[in-house]
Design a protein that fits this description.
elongated, Pep_chain_release_fac_I_sf, Pep_chain_release_fac_I, Ribosome-associated protein
Length: about 150
Amino acid sequence: MESLRIEPGPGAPEGLVIPAADLTEKFAKSSGPGGQGVNTTDSKVQLSMDLGSTSALSANQRERVIQALGHRLDGTVLTISSTEHRSQIRNRKEARARMATIIRDALAPPVPRRKTRPTRASVRRRLDAKRRRSELKSLRKRLRPGRNDA
């Protein structure tokens, strides 16, 4: 297995090279297309990388990637599966490309939210809708004898 090259992008201006020792590949039978060979070839590829212990990321990059990909991680391990193709070689390339893209996107710093104010018309529409809803609900009230609410 060879090292994984991540193209330059925000958060990694010179790009990254993830050593082959930090990557783990597993192969299994794919449930996808394959004809008669579907039950005989291990074409599914699972590419894993422990983001917490890799030597390719700095401490800041590691923290940013783990924060951004927290929902995809098992502990600190990122696993990508590929079953798109009938060929194991093509699935290996697909998994490596997808992992590189995911890590490059996770390294990008978050874009700060630009604060905006609602327009005067949208505030007026919201308040009008609330007023109409309030009137509708007030018509549902049971009138009590002796009170002149309506």
